[in-house]
């Protein structure tokens, strides 16, 4: 299975910053050491034209040329620097490349990504550009050049935080079905309606979590099967885990693995290619977060093998 990395492109953060930048290199190193069946490739840089498919010209220019206001930088949570802009472009490029690979091979992944709080004209919550939104629009453009019909897209967002930016970008777009299952009382505190939202109470454990996911997948099939998706994006956040600093849920490692198997099996049975993004993960122990995300990638590689068998 192909997986794209961008951890060589990092931005300097002040001491004590709560974003776990080091987890990306740790994840790549773990995959390289333990998963020879996952083919690592460096993420390409998203082009300005690709970014403009989901973001306003003013915002793209502000990020690329260092024109973000102090208030915009505070909302993103990162100080601007050339490295910040480069990392954001690479994170998007990784998801674009993973989506392109998934359409050929069935399953592919970005070892970062899941920047679902960025909307068309601003970033937020450690999200500069919205990688899934850009990749969905780019794949639709490429598909349109080759196929008579359009490309319907499904976004399965299981990060613990609601995908408000993705929901806003696609609010008027019937070709993209956005589904988010998240903590009801967690960030962002002003939610933007997805096509399907599932709010979870603080402390939600494995049983209720998995039951809610099963019900949601059944609803997706009922509500959009006439417009069957030809590509899915799966934001496989590790932050619903019981050991996450920001998650507020109580899902175990076994529960997250069951979640991933359900999603990947559901997509595989319906022959819907999927590009994964690792999305959030802010564990008290960063190595626990890395292990959870590595297990997600291992399950994705199994789904890739099953797709090709």
From TrEMBL:
<protein>
    <submittedName>
        <fullName>Histone deacetylase</fullName>
    </submittedName>
</protein>
<dbReference type="InterPro" id="IPR023801">
    <property type="entry name" value="His_deacetylse_dom"/>
</dbReference>
<dbReference type="InterPro" id="IPR023696">
    <property type="entry name" value="Ureohydrolase_dom_sf"/>
</dbReference>
<keyword id="KW-0378">Hydrolase</keyword>
<feature type="domain" description="Histone deacetylase">
    <location>
        <begin position="27"/>
        <end position="292"/>
    </location>
</feature>
<dbReference type="Pfam" id="PF00850">
    <property type="entry name" value="Hist_deacetyl"/>
</dbReference>
<dbReference type="InterPro" id="IPR000286">
    <property type="entry name" value="HDACs"/>
</dbReference>
<comment type="similarity">
    <text>Belongs to the histone deacetylase family.</text>
</comment>
<dbReference type="InterPro" id="IPR037138">
    <property type="entry name" value="His_deacetylse_dom_sf"/>
</dbReference>
<dbReference type="InterPro" id="IPR044150">
    <property type="entry name" value="HDAC_classIV"/>
</dbReference>
């Amino acid at each position: 299975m192909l997986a794209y990395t961008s951890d060589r492109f990092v931005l300097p953060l002040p001491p004590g910053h709560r974003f776990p930048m080091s987890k990306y290199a740790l994840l790549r190193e773990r995959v390289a050491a333990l998963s020879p069946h996952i083919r690592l490739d460096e993420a390409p840089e998203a082009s300005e034209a690709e970014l403009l498919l989901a973001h306003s010209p003013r915002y793209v220019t502000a990020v690329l040329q260092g024109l973000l206001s102090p208030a915009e930088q505070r909302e993103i949570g990162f100080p601007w620097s050339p490295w910040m802009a480069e990392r954001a472009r690479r994170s998007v490029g990784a998801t674009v490349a993973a989506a392109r690979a998934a359409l050929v091979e069935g399953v592919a992944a970005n070892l970062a990504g899941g920047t679902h709080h960025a909307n068309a004209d601003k970033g937020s919550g450690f999200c500069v550009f919205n990688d899934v939104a850009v990749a969905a629009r780019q794949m639709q453009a490429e598909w349109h050049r080759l196929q008579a019909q359009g490309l319907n897209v499904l976004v399965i967002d299981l990060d613990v935080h609601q995908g408000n930016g993705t929901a806003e970008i696609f609010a008027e777009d019937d070709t993209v079905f956005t589904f988010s299952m998240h903590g009801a009382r967690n960030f962002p505190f002003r939610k933007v309606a997805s096509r399907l939202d599932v709010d979870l109470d603080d402390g939600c454990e494995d049983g209720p979590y998995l039951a809610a996911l099963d019900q949601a997948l059944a609803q997706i099939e009922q509500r959009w099967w006439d417009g069957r998706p030809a590509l899915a994006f799966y934001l496989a956040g590790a932050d619903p885990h019981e050991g996450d600093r920001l998650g507020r849920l109580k899902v175990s490692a076994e529960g997250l693995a069951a979640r991933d198997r359900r999603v990947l099996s559901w997509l595989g049975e319906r022959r819907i290619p999927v590009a994964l993004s690792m999305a959030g993960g802010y564990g008290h122990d960063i190595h626990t977060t890395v292990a959870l995300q590595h297990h997600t990638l291992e399950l994705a590689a199994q789904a890739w093998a099953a797709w090709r068998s």
